[in-house]
Amino acid sequence: MLALLYLKHAFNLSDEELVERWSENVVWQFFSGMAYYTPKLPCDATQIGRFRRVLGEAGVEQLLKSTIEAAVAMKAVGKREFERVIVDSTVQEKAIAHPTDSRLLEVVLTQ
Questions:
Q1: Which of 5, 18, 43, 65 has the maximal Cβ count within 10 Å?
Q2: Which helix (H) or strand (E) holds 50?
């Protein structure tokens, strides 16, 4: 369930999309700890929502902390890499009015 939660957030999927893609993707199944590919759904999509509610925000924070600690212990990342955070805002939505925006149409009609 934890692997499914990571995949859900990493790929920004709904619960239904997640279980469908998981059943088709051998790499995701390996990431989830499966030894062999199985073409069936890992669980019902509603179980993911229930798991997320039971885990809560504090549980998700603990998972992130444990993941970072494991990465540092395995020397996959160094402690210095956590001293500075670089945020790439180019992928964030901007407040841009598109020509099809109804507000712009009103501006044109009132002039």
A1: 18
A2: helix 45-73
Q: What is the pLDDT of residue 99?
A: 62
Q: In the structure encoding, which two tokens stand for residue 91, read together?
A: 């992928």
Q: Residue 71 and residue 65: Cα distance in Å, rounded?
A: 10
Distance CA 106, CA 109 (A): 5
CA atoms within 13 A on the CB side of 92: 5
Residue 48: count other Cβ atoms within 10 Å of its Cβ: 20
In the chain, domain spans: 2-87
Q: Over its length of 111 residues, how does the chain's per-residue pLDDT go in tens digits?
A: 989 998 998 899 999 999 999 999 999 999 999 999 999 999 999 999 899 899 888 988 898 899 889 999 999 988 888 888 887 777 666 666 666 667 777 777 777
Residue 104 in contact with residue 97, Cβ under 8 Å? yes
